[in-house]
Amino acid sequence: MTEYSNEFMETEIGFDAAPARLTVDLSAIVSNWRTMRALSGTARTGAVVKADGYGLGIEDVGEALYEAGAADFFVAVPEEGATLRRFAPDARIFVLSGMWPGTEAMFFGNGLVPVLASEEQLAFFFAAIADYGDYPCALQVDTGFNRLGLSHDEALRLAADDARPASFSPVLVLSHLACGDDAAAPMNREQLARFRDVANAFEGVEASLSASAGILLGADYHFELTRPGIALYGGDSAPGASKKLQPAATAEARIIQTRFAKKGENVSYGATQQLDRESRLAIVSAGYADGYLRAKSGTGVPLRDAVPSGGMGFIAGHRVPILGRITMDMTIFDITDLPEGAVRAGDYVELFGPNIALDDAAAAAGTIGYELLTSLGLRYNRRYIQPD
Ligand SMILES: *Cc1c(COP(=O)(O)O)cnc(C)c1O
Question: Where does substrate bind (predicted)?
Answer without folding.
Answer: 147, 328
